[in-house]
Amino acid sequence: MNKRNKAVIDPEMRDFEDALLRSMDQAKKGEYAAVHTPEQIVARRGRPVGSVKADAKQAVKLRFDPDVLAALRSTGRGWQTRVNEVMREWVKTHAKNN
User: Are residues 63 and 97 in the same domain?
Assistant: First the structure.
């Protein structure tokens, strides 16, 4: 689908594309760099320094049966946090004493 057809289907898309192209042109001309120093530009990339806690949660891949996963997700937002809490309680009650 070409640009003209998009504008007919959604007139707001044309406005968005024009604004995006203008901002890209400004970046090519260095207008963004003229407003910000190289240090400011670099400092804005990525996570802020110190934003990751030392004891941050770790992403893992678990495999659940489809019915179990559906039941967990059906409890709504925060289901992963609730699973973490349940697992923490299980570990406390089932941990082997060394």
Answer: yes
